[in-house]
Amino acid sequence: MKLTVVITQGEEMLIGQVQEIPGVVTQGANVEQVMDNIQDALGLYFQDSDVVLEKNNSQRTFKNIVSMQELEFA
C-alpha cells in the first residue's frame, strides 16, 4: 500500500502525518526520524483496526510543509 507522508515544521519538532489517514501523526527531530516513527504509528493503527482507505480522502490542507514523501507500507 502506498501512502503519502506530509512533514511540517512544528514549534520545536517536525510533525509527520499520513495524508490518507488523519489519525496517524508523529514527530521527530529530522525527516529520517519522522519516517521511522510514522512506520511504527501505522503499525499500531492497523494492528487493531479494520480500516479501509478511500482514495479520495486526501483533500486535507497542510501549512509549513517541509517534505512530502511516498511511503510503501506492507
UniProtKB/TrEMBL annotation:
SUPFAM superfamilies recorded:
TTHA1013/TTHA0281-like
Name of the molecule in the record: Type II toxin-antitoxin system HicB family antitoxin
Native source organism of the sequence: Dyadobacter endophyticus
